[in-house]
Amino acid sequence: MSDSSEQPDSQQQSVGETAAWDGSAGTEAAGGTRDLTGKTLGDFEVERLLGRGGMGEVYLARQISLNRPVALKVLRTDMLNNPTYLSRFEAEATAVARLNHPNIVHVYMLGCVDNIRFIAMEYVQGTNLREFLIKKGALDLPLALSIMKQTGVAIGAAGEIGLIHRDIKPENLLLTRKGQVKVADFGLCRDSDADKIHLTQPGVTMGTPQYMSPEQAQGHALDHRSDLYSLGVTAYHMLTGTPPFRAETALAVALKHVKDTAVRPIVHRPEIPPELERLVMKLMEKKPKDRYQSAAEMLRDLAKVRDSLQATTATIPDTDLAGVGNGNGNGTPVSTAAVVVPAAKPARTRPEGPGLGARLATVRLSGGQMTGLISACLAIGLVWGWLTRAPDLISESAPQPKEMPALWMVPEWRDVFKQNSPEAQYRYAQLHVAKTDQEGAWLAVPGNFPSAREWASKAYIQLARELLRRKDADRLRAFAAELSRWNTDRMHEQELAVIVQAAVDALDGKVEDVIAGLGSKNLDPKTVIDPALLELSLEVTAQAANPRDGGTSLVPQGLREIQASLLQRLYNVELREPQGRGRLG
Fold it and tell me: Quick check: is 337 in a domain?
């Protein structure tokens, strides 16, 4: 179980539960939950509520006898008399207790005090992958590969004793501050070898649709290859910044996993190595027989990908695969140290004469000199330890990508004829390029002239208009995410990011979000001075006003007010153009 000191109010995402945090700490909530803060349960003093989920609450507590922090997962009071939930709750504890693995959250004990049933488990300081992806977007390749590898090792270790997690997803991958992965929440775990536990039988669908395997979505029998599919979906999300499938309902997402083929990751991010893309897509094959047949098989291919990147990448946090997921079942511990293979050095001949030890033996120091020498050595050791400490892989200070947004979208922009200036490049895209090639032509402006931010922003406006008109929600969504992470203090670019996000909401049919996004609290039309931005905003409101099926519906009053304000502002800006304002659009 996990906590993050950076975001103390968002711990619900770190407890690995599929239900959302209801914010009702300290009160009796729906379903019989309660806040046990301050209560003592046997050897555990409950300190605070971390979050609530489908089966109960998770608390931070202190184990009195060992003076260590633990996470207590407490079963909801209304489930105490339900044999099915009791069996599932106890099955989770007994299943995970069979594993002593550094990449799986440890279970310490199963307890019951005053009719309160709880599981005491390892408390992990850090965050979870979902929260990290929200903050960072697509991950750097070394970190993504490390998380894939550690999670694969954990899945392999569980599979060796017949355990299927059934809910591998970013929320259930906890990250320590040094980048170690801890797989959490075996609440849906099934022992594939124990016929006496019939908690999740074929025909019963459990899990999270966004990361669910096709066979799980259809209620079919599962094996460890279902977890590998979910790992593939999670890897796709890490590498591209977006899940492979999105839809308005959970059922629609599940159907996409059954029927649709995901867009290749390289479309979202061209620098992804082809062999890594093939690995992810193989994990996500619809039929289990077409996937990797074991975690060990996947890990071998992943090791080859890592080896191919060693020449161009600094040290990659690694894990030792010896004895894990290869069928020998010896549970060899995993190392999370960085692997560096130094070049061989020629042997040096020993100089003649007395050695260093013999020479030091002749040195005589006074008591004061000895104390000073020891103090100096300690100081040097502390400084050296600080300078050579392990990097914080999930630090907020991690460098952001410097490449201009969206250049991955149409790699062919490099083939567009380069002009002598950013304005000429913009005009070339505007006047001399076929409609079918305009996306790449617009991207040639920021691609060839990244320092000309004004012209790059203008080109991005036109790109957003093209994507909106084509109703390309997936690429527009990825574009919006990159713009939001684009470090800028330019008002024009900030306005563009807001409008593009509103365009995504319009395509998703979220009219209220469009109204909020383009409203005066978020984007005041009275301050927008670029006609192209105003025109893009009007196109967004027009899309939001029309249902996705092309029919007619009543336009909300708030949307009509925004449209009127945008039209008035555009009229005023256009009138001022003859007085010296140039227009790009």
Answer: no
Task: Please tell me whether residues 48 and 71 are part of one structural domain.
Answer: yes
Q: How many of the other CB atoms lie within 10 Å of CB of 539?
A: 17
- Are residues 185 and 266 part of one domain? yes
Q: What is the mean pLDDT of residues 284-305?
A: 92
- Average pLDDT, rounded, for the chain: 74
pLDDT digits (tens, 9 = 90+) for 214-257: 998 888 888 889 999 999 999 999 999 999 988 878 888 888 89
The model's confidence at residue 442, banded by pLDDT at 50, 70 and 90, is very high
113 with 141, same domain: the answer is no
Q: Which of 167, 227, 505, 508 is catalytic?
A: 167
pLDDT in tens, 141-175: 989 999 999 999 999 988 887 888 888 999 989 99
Catalytic (active site) residue 167: yes
- Of 107, 125, 143, which residue constitutes the final position of a domain? 125
Query: Are residue 106 and residue 119 in the same domain, yes or no?
Result: yes
Handedness of CA 40, 45, 49, 52 (dihedral sign): negative
Pairing label, strands 127-128, 173-175: antiparallel
Q: Which domain holds residue 28?
A: 2-125
Name the pTM for this structure. Answer: 0.52
**Cα torsion for 548, 552, 556, 560, to the nearest 10°?**
100
Domain count, the chain: 3
Nearest one of 146, 152, 101, 149 to 391, comparing CA atoms = 146
Residue type, 338: A
